[in-house]
Write a structure and sequence with these properties.
Blueprint: E1 2-10, E2 13-21, E3 28-34, H1 42-53, E4 57-60, H2 75-86, H3 89-104, E5 109-119, H4 121-131, E6 138-142, E7 159-165, H5 173-185, E8 190-195, E9 208-209, E10 214-215, H6 218-236
Parallel strand pairs: 3-4, 3-5, 5-6, 6-7, 7-8
Antiparallel strand pairs: 1-2, 2-4, 9-10
Length: 238
């Protein structure tokens, strides 16, 4: 497997992606990986490597800026990094579209076959990528935040898959229903897989704070990654 760090920019902000791919003589589909609220740390980089093992190019993007990271369990620090973006959906859309442009320009990427996936805050980001009307085949939110901002949706072109813990206190059932209604009214090909007895951050083995609502669930993780694999295979083989 080849891995590398890649500098790119959103306006005056320098960002740093982590790219992973297998040896290949042909261009491969690209999957952007949008990190959780702690930044583009090991968890996101390992997800990019997982994507590479599936036969695609994994691109762990950077929403915060080169060298800007939170920390596991540091709610105050992570919130201070996430909240300015979460409250400014224009900025989220601009920043994740900058990653899309950088990823598409990689020589090993087939620019016509692109998807994006994201964890927690990163799920919000990839849903905003879809809402921006970006020309991507699909987006996958993994225990992501569904609530829209105050920015109007563009023509959503991508298929949407959400992998959701039913007991996630950060995405209550009424928010799920509102999102389903939003996607249906927009004419989107959408899916939500809800896992019973499952809370937020269920794919992260470091998540173990039931009072906060973040708990790892190995069974839900396995089911989610199987669904992710099926979804990517579907959209890339069309």
């Amino acid at each position: 497997m080849h891995t590398q760090y890649l500098d790119y920019n959103d306006g005056d902000t320098k960002l740093e992606a982590y790219v992973a791919y297998q040896d290949t003589d042909t261009q491969k589909p690209l999957v952007l990986v949008s990190h959780d609220w702690s930044g583009r740390r090991e968890f996101a980089c390992k997800a990019a490597e997982r994507i590479a093992e599936m036969g695609y190019v994994g691109f762990a993007l950077d929403m915060y800026g080169k060298g800007v990271f939170g920390a596991d369990g540091d709610v105050e620090l992570n919130s201070s990094l996430m909240n300015p973006l979460a409250s400014d959906r224009h900025r989220i859309r601009q920043r994740i579209n900058a990653a899309l442009g950088a990823g598409r320009n990689l020589p090993q990427v087939d620019a016509t076959r692109v998807a994006a996936m994201g964890y927690c805050f990163g799920g919000m980001c990839v849903l905003e990528l879809a809402r921006s009307g970006a020309d991507v085949l699909g987006v996958v939110s993994i225990h992501g935040i569904f609530s829209p901002g105050d920015v109007a949706n563009d023509n959503i072109k991508s298929k949407v898959l959400c992998l959701h813990g039913h007991d996630d206190p950060m995405v209550p059932p009424e928010q799920v229903l509102a999102f389903e209604t939003e996607m249906t009214e927009a004419g989107v090909d959408w899916q939500i897989h809800a896992y019973g007895g499952t809370m937020h951050a269920f794919t992260n083995p470091a998540a173990n704070n039931p009072d906060f609502g973040t708990v790892y669930n190995e069974v839900a993780q396995h089911r989610a990654y199987q669904s992710l694999s099926n979804f990517l295979e579907e959209i890339f083989q069309q």
